[in-house]
Amino acid sequence: LAFGLIFSLLSTAAVAHHSPFLFFDPTQTIEIEGEITKMVWRNPHASFELRSQEADGSMRVWQVEANSVSILNRMNLTRDSVNVGDQVRMAGWPGKGGGADIFVINILISDGTEIVLMPGNEPRWSSDLTGDEGNWMVTEADMDAPPQGATNSIFDTWSTSLASIREILMFDGYAFELTEAAISARAGYQLYDNPIFKGECVHKGMPTIMEQPYPMELVDNGEVITVRMEEGDAVREIKMSETVDAADLTADVMGHSFGKWEDNSLVVTTVKSSWPYVDMTGVQNREDAVYVEKFTLTADGKRLNYTMTVTDPGVFVEPVVVSKYWLRIEGVEVQPYDCQSG
Engineering a disulfide at 131: which of 75, 95, 218, 260 sits with its beta carbon 3.0 to 4.6 angstroms away? Predict the structure, then answer.
């Protein structure tokens, strides 16, 4: 797998919770062998302990981190794909701290079956594979036409495809033109200032939550449109009414969202978000920021295009416009995320 794609996939993982790139080195791949002595199958990350024998005969216990269960389940992998007591070989990225830590990408079990745990990654040892890329690498060309009547409605479940990864990463690598005050504030930013790192199950706010890579459902409740997102079991409510004066609103991590229809697009204005950062590099999100989102269905109904315009003269020299899209993949549903710490 090309390093550029690896980096992009890891950036997507950062959106999902935190990026393995922050703690593991994807420029190196190491292999370890031994017995799985512990397995935790839960969001935000599956994890293992592996007991291996060193060359000098001593035993070493490795802490092994893997992708989220939400990703692995959609690769048709389950907690029964590998078990405590299995003798396995693992390949993955070593921890940057130099200890017995690894982010696992491939697992070879004793019967010769290989498990690939990263969408888009190649098998390393075997042609006998468990699991697949699932829906993660689907493109529009792979998709059948939606059922009759679905092509004119955005109210459905929408999925992220990693096939064209750069088209769905909104803020990753964006060249922000910042005010002097914002540049100064960013210079003092420390990664662990970001609330994402305050716990494993932090509920993200606007705008960060819209980068989450898992399925999203739009539900028409008349005067309110509900946006259900799988990561963190997050819910946004969009009131189909005129935007009110932000001064009359109490700040909230999701902000306050107001929607209207314009030329068959859903246009949503969100104000008063208390989530502190726009991205992982420390660009401020202030309560004065105004977010205008536009959801537009393509003519064939397969794709939901999305733009977000961020306006805050105290942070940005000019409004920032980012975009992504989702696909209408048949049979996909928003599943409980059920994040568990510890």
Answer: 75
129-130/114-116 β-pairing? parallel
Are 205 and 194 a contacting pair, CB within 8 Å? no
User: Counting Cβ atoms within 10 Å, is residue 179 exposed (0-12), middle (13-18) or buried (19+)?
Assistant: middle
Q: What is the pLDDT of residues 84-128, one digit of tens each?
A: 999 999 999 999 988 999 999 999 999 999 999 988 889 999 999
DSSP 66-110: ---HHHHHTTT--TTSS-TT-EEEEEEEEBTTSSSEEEEEEEEET
First to last CA, the chain: 32
Q: Which residue has the tokens 């890579």?
A: 213
The domains of the chain, with CATH numbers, are 3-130 (2.40.50.140), 140-327 (no CATH)
Residues 7, 305: Cα–Cα separation, whole Å:
24
DSSP 165: G
| Token pair for 4 | 């550029």
At 224-253, the pLDDT tens digits run 999 999 999 999 999 998 877 888 899 999
pLDDT digits (tens, 9 = 90+) for 126-140: 999 998 887 889 998
**From start to end of the chain, where are the E strands?**
30-40, 47-53, 59-65, 87-94, 101-109, 114-116, 129-130, 157-158, 216-220, 224-229, 234-239, 256-262, 265-271, 290-297, 303-311, 320-327
Q: What is the number of alpha carbons within 13 Å of residue 187 lying toward its C-beta?
A: 7
pTM over 0.70: yes
Q: How many CA atoms lie within 13 A of 183 on its CB side?
A: 7
Would you say 289 and 269 are in contact if contact means Cβ atoms under 8 Å apart?
no
Sign for the CA dihedral angle at 110, 113, 117, 122 comes to: positive
Structure tokens at 319: 């409004």
